[in-house]
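Illustration: Phosphoribosylformylglycinamidine synthase subunit PurS.
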Amino acid sequence: MGRVVVDVMPKPEILDPQGKAVAGALPRLGFAQFTSVRQGKRFELEVEGPVTDEVLAAARAAGEQVLSNPVIEDVVAVYEDEVSA
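Result:
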């Protein structure tokens, strides 16, 4: 069994209030080295058998058509989760 990860992030021009709230909280909690935060989504898709190029292409298509809102989000990464392999 394999696992594919699809990472989705807001487009750069879209405001990210959750990321802004986290960025404001980090210095108060002792993490002053971080200057900004963008919050996104991670999807883990399990497949029977190995993760092939075709599986990765299908995961990217699913990310672009179903898992993300293409008006405000980008699929920024699609890759095999090596930990599950």
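Reading the tokens back as a structure: Helices lie at 17-28, 53-67.
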